[in-house]
Write a structure and sequence with these properties.
Blueprint: H1 2-21, H2 30-48, H3 53-57, H4 63-69, H5 73-79, H6 91-101, E1 122-124, E2 139-142, E3 151-154, E4 156-158, H7 168-181, E5 185-186, H8 194-197, E6 203-207, H9 223-230, E7 235-241, E8 253-254, H10 261-267, E9 275-276, H11 287-300, E10 306-310, H12 315-328, E11 334-338, H13 349-354, H14 359-372, E12 380-384, H15 390-398, E13 403-406, H16 408-413, H17 436-439, H18 444-469, E14 482-487, E15 490-493, H19 494-497, H20 518-524
Parallel strand pairs: 4-13, 5-6, 6-7, 7-10, 10-11, 11-12, 12-13
Antiparallel strand pairs: 1-14, 2-3, 8-9, 14-15
Helix pairs in contact: 1-2, 6-18, 7-18, 11-12, 12-14, 15-18
Length: about 525
């Protein structure tokens, strides 16, 4: 319990006072009194300071972590940045996010630490005539022909993370950072809370299979409540969640210990009881019914952009959706592709490691399918899945996305240290907990600035990379600009590694000449049936 952590300060103080009193008997007690007094003063400061969440929750003892960080990188990596089963985390990514969030210049001496001859290494081709970096970040138009209130999306936004999974203070820091930085904040499927609304950041309201926030007593979709909340000015778009990268095919789970009275009110569920989202939607059962439901949501939302999020599975299922879009003349305004490598919370290990399509292949499928049916220009495509650096962002744009969303990196920006206690409600830095004593460690006034800094610096880095490639805007990026080492002495561009369909090639029988099974999948796609 948190009050037990604070008892460390009280204990050290008592010992320090006792040692000081013992000086009257013997001067030798200075050897104990001085260190104990120093620890007592340090602990008192740790409790009241707001910069370090670890020290607020773990006064005195928390300094051990920062001591290790100052040691050699090998020790830092071994003691700080390894999972409980010994698997290393991506130290480069974490350090980049932390440095940018803190406003530290992220430059490294002595070149890359990675082997450029290791298979899988990726690099961009630059030009000898780079383009200047624009003063204003590029924005993406989100809104198709039936959208009357389009939105201008930033290149990097806060990905879906629900209140409940994250603490109220974490949500507040993310939303205030979004408001100050001019980017969007996806609510996650847990509904819209007061924490989402208090700072005025733009919201993408995500509706999952539990319909939290617009839920009937029976667990269905409440049209009237949806229309009421979708009309709020802060809600800029609505996203229908089909699946998520961490556990596609499995509904979300919020342990009962994290379902406080506030969360129960926001989600419209019983307090203290584990909340399980179904793995499927109740309001539609076929691709045709789904696109009709999207249109109904857009009407209820007053013409605001409506789209959906998915981790790609069977290609023919997505093509079934494409056929439904064509036959109904209904397209989503955006599609967010969630990669199987993504995910910020707890999920079954087998699903994390073995289920779902990685983001690169998922983007390729969605981009090609929409291009092949001639609808790519009507639908903005977002990418979500371990996007943390400017190079990550540009890679996703090259691979077919129009913009990106980040979850894990945004958690790092508000102080997450990947203690992997998200599901246990014992997050030591107040990010993923509903324990008010732990949550208080996360100071919103400090952490929102870090969120804004991280997003701004990462987008700036992406624009600088694009300038080095010789392009003025994302639409000029091409697959031939990104290369991957396929063997120690062989490289290939993304133009060679993947198929890239021509506009409209899936229509009018032209698919007969396509490689990679597109012909078979297109023929078998059925707008009236989801099929594997």
């Amino acid at each position: 319990m948190l009050h037990r952590r604070w008892s460390t300060v009280a204990l050290v103080t008592v010992l320090a006072v006792a040692a000081a009193a013992a000086l009257a008997a013997s001067a030798r007690w200075w050897a104990a009194a001085v260190p104990l007094l120093a620890c007592a003063v340090t602990g008192a400061y740790d409790v009241v300071q707001r910069r370090h969440s670890v020290l607020r929750n773990y006064p005195v003892l928390g300094h051990l972590r920062f001591t290790l960080e100052r040691l050699r990188p090998e020790l830092q990596q071994y003691f700080i940045e390894r999972d409980f089963d010994g698997r290393p985390f991506d130290r480069e990514t974490r350090s980049t996010v932390y440095e940018r969030a803190k406003g530290v210049e992220d430059t490294d001496p002595f070149g890359t630490e990675r082997s450029v001859y290791q298979p899988g290494y990726e690099f961009f081709l630059h030009t000898v005539a780079p383009r200047p970096v624009p003063e204003e970040p590029y924005r993406v138009h989100v809104g198709g022909p039936r959208c009357t209130r389009p939105y201008r999306m930033a290149l990097l936004n806060v990905s879906a993370m629900s209140f409940g999974s994250l603490s109220g203070n974490a949500i507040r820091a993310l939303n205030r950072g979004a408001a100050e930085g001019g980017f969007a904040h996806d609510t996650g499927e847990g509904g819209i809370s007061d924490h989402h609304l208090c700072h005025g950041g733009d919201l993408i309201w995500e509706i999952g299979t539990g319909y939290f926030g617009c839920r009937t007593p029976e667990g269905g979709f409440d049209e009237a409540e949806f229309a009421r909340k979708a009309a709020w000015e802060q809600v800029r778009a609505v996203s229908l969640k089909l699946s998520q990268g961490a556990k596609p095919g499995v509904g979300g789970v919020l342990p009962g210990g994290k379902v406080s009275a506030e969360i129960a009110r926001v989600r419209e569920v019983p307090q203290g009881r584990t909340v399980v989202s179904p793995p499927y939607h109740r309001v539609f059962g076929t691709p045709r019914e789904m696109v009709r439901f999207l249109e109904r949501m857009r009407v209820l939302a007053g013409g605001k952009p409506v789209g959906f999020k998915l981790c790609v599975g069977y290609r023919r299922e997505f093509l079934s959706l494409c056929k439904a879009m064509l036959e109904e003349d209904i397209t989503p305004d955006f599609i967010v592709v969630d990669g199987a490598e993504g995910g910020t919370g707890a999920a079954p290990l087998e699903f994390v490691d073995h289920v779902g399509v990685p983001l690169t292949e998922g983007l390729n499928t969605v981009h090609n399918a929409l291009t092949g049916i001639g609808l790519r220009e009507r639908v903005a495509v977002g990418a979500s899945g371990k996007v943390a650096t400017g190079s990550d962002l540009v890679k996703r744009l090259v691979q077919g996305a129009d913009y990106t969303n980040a979850a894990r990196a945004m958690m790092f920006a508000v102080g997450c240290i990947q203690s992997q206690r998200c599901h246990a409600n014992t997050c030591p830095v107040g990010v993923a907990t509903q324990d008010p004593r732990r949550e208080r460690a996360l100071d919103v006034a400090d952490k929102y600035v870090r969120v804004r800094r991280f997003q701004e610096a990462t987008v700036r880095s992406a624009l600088e990379i694009m300038g080095a490639l010789g392009v003025d805007e994302p639409a000029q990026l091409r697959p031939r600009m990104l290369y991957r080492r396929t063997a120690p002495h062989a490289v290939a561009s993304y133009a060679e590694l993947y198929d890239w369909l021509a506009p409209g090639v899936l229509l009018g029988g032209a698919a007969r000449e396509l490689p990679g099974g597109w012909e078979r999948d297109w023929d078998e796609a059925d707008p009236d049936r989801f099929t594997g």
